[in-house]
Design a protein that fits this description.
Strand content of chain A: 15-25%
Number of strands of chain A: 14
Largest interface: A-B, 24 and 26 residues
Shape of chain B: elongated
CATH superfamily of the domain at 72-168 and 264-301 in chain B: Cytochrome c-like domain
Number of strands of chain B: 2
Helix content of chain B: 40-55%
Distance between the termini of chain A: 90 Å
Strand content of chain B: under 5%
Largest sheet of chain A: 5 strands, antiparallel
CATH topology of the domain at 72-168 and 264-301 in chain B: Cytochrome Bc1 Complex, Chain D, domain 2
Strand order of the largest sheet of chain B: 1-2
Largest sheet of chain B: 2 strands, antiparallel
Oligomer: heterodimer
Number of domains of chain A: 2
Helix content of chain A: 40-55%
Number of helices of chain B: 12
Number of helices of chain A: 17
CATH class of the domain at 72-168 and 264-301 in chain B: Mainly Alpha
Shape of chain A: elongated
Radius of gyration of chain A: 33 Å
Chain lengths: 483, 308
């Protein structure tokens, strides 16, 4: 009984070579939606780094720039410093919850329309079609022997792949440096090694993933389809073949002979022919289905031609499918969007977004961080006073040099002065100029009379001078020797 | 049994020949890529052993045909760094120390370099925070035996303190009043009382009044009538709150009885002028640095000429 020969279906092999997918051209509502999304996403990807944004003389004028070298992230009017990276983390959390929201509402819409793997695979399939013709021509070409003509064609096609792949990688690096300068540097061989390496790696991955691996990335490599299966429920839209309406499938001729025995499906296989991942939707929901809905377009066209109602394959929730199968009325599809789960996701998503906007609007663009010298903690001066030394880091996060006032309060008889200058008679505040968009390191001395107190608390404050009078302060200790 | 090959029907692979309750183990051959990778590592290993030091011998290892050593690498990096620093070192000694320190960039370079050199050459006595110990001055404070401006500090570094074979060294000699029998022990106690009175540690008393007379006779020549000391002679200020060996009675008694002779090496013997300059600027930056003296005071502070 445990003999594997008896368990294994002889047809089922442990490994099977990939069968190439040659989707057929199709036009329809969802195909047009896919075109639109492809154009929009690619346009965003390619155009964004070239948008200029004037930030004055002290900062780059690229609207979106991840300046790794100087550790700044610019996005239009927002500038993020490394210590504010939680805004980026917040964006990533929003992107994650956004995916939850989209998935629970409309299923694998991300996979079907917006995922770069999908968009680039789609693009490369259009290249196939442009070079080798539609589905049947491509299948013939695949099977044909390697003649000179085929070789030339293939090289031409792969050349286009490589061209697209190169421009994909080439556009990516534009986000990390001033785009016009980088283009010149890149072609004159003066760009950083990392720029060439990045372009090389992204060119290779695009060429391989988009040109050859395609749906295998979705089916075997990507974790997201697995996670999505857990995110979806019976009220999530998914592309469904309505078997209760379609079965038993059969050609029009057969159905004409015995109308009662056959359903609406005419078994034309158009849904299979257009599928970019090469599956048969009529086998039910499956991991290979990215819900691009091209089969809906194909089926709707055929149904129109044979005079049957559209929607034999359609976006429908599992609940509605049950109801429809049982012959009950189903409510409008949009009602499925408004349910507790999606509303909670939306609420969390919007909440994080609003909180970040609020925080961005209220953040101060200066910052004080002070470190008390620990070696020595205090110095006895000849007149009996005790001196403590501090290192203050003052961040000026605005794109202009700023005058700032440093002051101390709460330490009786104290005098504050800057390292490298001589001790003044009596002073508790001083003016410093912090260069635009940088951190000033300030060595500060504070002297106070000898008392019996070993440890006094006081407050150091910086205040930006001028129209934007922000301030920041820190509580510090002043220490004296043990008596 | 051994001649018979056991082949698994489902996979067509040989088995290892054992069977446990009907379970057999497949003897799957190594994947090609794995075997080739293994051979490649062997080739790599042999090449590596020829090119680089590998086989340990009694005193060293085989040298390898490339002649690579980690010490050589370090040497290369160090000399590359030295070369980078050469212009800065040259600029540091190109001018007098006050104008060098007035240049902000050079000053910062000197402070950073001085901080490093300090950790190598000075911390043994002055401590890693330059706050000194008993007998080793705190360099952070504003009390200086020989002067706290840049030139004075550099002079002290160059010539050292109490270097017997060196005529230009900082030298001061307080008599051992007790040991040499100049003052009797009870007189020394009176002087201690007086010194503690002018430093504010004790109230005036009959003992301090007796001490004042003894002080006037024995100490004013160096420490001054007011007890404020004399930097020209390296005589400490007795009226301030800082004392190199302590202000308590026992320490003062010991100082007056046996005297103290702290020493510091003359660093011109061991360090190059640029490093000494960096150290001087670094020490000056610690918080007690004084401004350059006015010309008419130069003679008084006696910092001497720059080192040759």
């Amino acid at each position: 009984m445990n003999n594997p020969d008896e368990i294994l279906d002889p047809e089922l092999k442990l490994y099977e070579a990939r069968k190439a997918v040659h989707p057929q051209r199709i036009d329809g509502t969802f195909r047009r939606l896919k075109w639109a999304i492809m154009i929009v996403t690619l346009a965003i990807y390619y155009i964004t780094p070239w948008i200029r944004w004037d930030r004055g003389p002290y900062a780059p004028n690229q609207a979106v720039l991840v300046d790794l070298a100087n550790r700044r992230f610019y996005m239009f009017g927002i500038e993020i410093w490394p210590h504010e990276f939680y805004y980026v983390a917040g964006l990533l959390v929003m992107a994650g919850i956004g995916l939850f929201l989209v998935t629970s509402a409309v299923g694998r819409a991300w996979c079907g329309y917006a995922c770069p793997q999908t968009v680039w695979t789609d693009l490369f399939q259009h290249v196939d079609r442009f070079v080798d013709g539609d589905r049947n021509a491509r299948m013939r070409m695949d099977k044909a022997p390697w003649t000179a003509k085929k070789t030339v064609r293939r090289l031409f096609k792969w050349g286009i792949y490589l061209f697209i792949a190169f421009w994909t990688g080439g556009a990516w690096i534009m986000y990390f440096a001033d785009a016009p300068t980088l283009v010149v540097d890149f072609w004159t061989g003066e760009a950083a090694f990392v720029a060439y390496a990045t372009v090389g790696i992204l060119t290779a991955t695009t060429f391989i993933f988009g040109g050859f691996m395609r749906e295998q990335v979705c089916v075997y490599m990507c974790p997201w389809p697995r996670i999505q299966a857990a995110m979806m429920d019976e009220k999530s839209l998914q592309v469904t073949y309505k078997d209760w309406r379609g079965e038993k499938r059969g050609s029009i001729k057969k159905a004409q002979k015995d109308p009662a025995a056959f359903g609406d499906c005419v078994d034309c296989n158009q849904c299979v022919a257009v599928c970019p991942t090469g599956i048969d939707i009529r086998e039910g929901p499956q991991i290979g289905c990215i819900t691009c809905a091209l089969c809906i377009d194909a089926c709707d066209r055929v149904m129109g031609e044979v005079g049957r109602p559209r929607g034999l394959i359609d976006y429908i929730t599992a609940d509605d499918a049950e109801a429809e199968k049982a012959g009950k009325e189903t409510g409008p599809a949009w009602k499925n969007l408004l349910r507790l789960r999606t509303l909670v996701y939306f609420g969390v998503w919007a909440g994080i977004g609003l909180a970040m906007l609020f925080a961005l609007g209220n953040r101060t663009r200066l910052d004080l961080a002070v470190q008390h010298d620990r070696n020595p903690v205090y110095v006895q001066l000849s007149n009996g006073d005790i001196r403590n030394a501090y290192t203050a880091k003052i961040r000026n996060m605005e794109n202009r040099p700023r005058q700032m006032n440093v002051s101390i309060t709460g330490l009786p008889g104290a005098t504050l002065w800057e390292g490298g200058t001589s001790r003044p008679d009596q002073q508790t505040a001083l003016e410093v100029t912090v260069p635009a968009d940088s951190v000033a390191n300030l060595r500060l001395f504070i002297a106070a009379p000898e008392t019996t107190s070993e440890r006094d608390e006081f407050v150091m404050t910086i205040e930006g001078a001028g129209e934007n009078a922000e301030s920041d302060s820190e509580e510090l200790f002043f220490e004296r020797p043990k008596n | 049994m051994s001649e018979h090959k056991y082949v698994d029907k489902a996979t067509g692979t040989e088995t290892v020949g054992h069977e446990w309750d009907g379970i057999v183990e497949l003897d799957t051959p190594m994947p090609r890529w794995w075997v080739w990778t293994f051979y490649a590592t062997i080739v790599w290993g042999i090449a590596y052993m020829i090119l680089y030091p590998a086989w340990p011998l009694v005193n060293s290892a085989t040298e390898g045909v490339l002649g690579w050593t980690s010490r050589g690498e370090l040497q290369k990096e160090m000399s590359a760094r030295e070369q980078q620093l050469e212009p800065i070192r040259a600029a540091l000694v190109a001018n007098d120390i006050n104008s060098v320190a007035a240049n902000e960039n050079l000053r910062n370079q000197a402070i950073n370099g001085g901080a490093s050199a300090f950790k190598v050459h000075c911390v043994q006595c002055h401590g890693s925070g330059a706050s000194g110990f008993k007998g080793y001055p705190n360099l952070n404070d504003d009390d200086w035996l020989w002067g706290g401006d840049l030139e004075a500090i550099e002079y002290t570094l160059v010539h050292g303190i109490r270097q017997p074979d060196h005529p230009d060294t900082r030298f001061s000699q307080m008599p051992a009043f007790g040991r040499d029998g100049i003052l009797q022990p009870n007189e020394i106690q009176d002087v201690v009382s007086y010194v503690r009175t002018i430093s504010g540690d004790e109230r005036p008393s009959p003992a301090s009044e007796r001490g004042a007379v003894l002080y006037e006779a024995n100490c004013t020549i160096c420490h001054g009538a007011d007890g404020k000391g004399d930097r020209f002679q390296g005589a400490p200020n007795l009226t301030d709150r800082i004392a190199l060996y302590g202000r308590d009675r026992a320490s003062l008694t010991e100082t007056i009885t046996n005297s103290r002779y702290g020493v510091m090496p003359r660093w011109s013997e061991r360090l190059d002028p640029a490093t000494i300059r960096m150290l001087a600027i670094y020490v000056h930056s610690l918080g007690g640095g004084e401004a350059a003296p006015q010309p008419d005071e130069t003679a008084e502070t006696g910092t001497g000429d720059e080192q040759s």
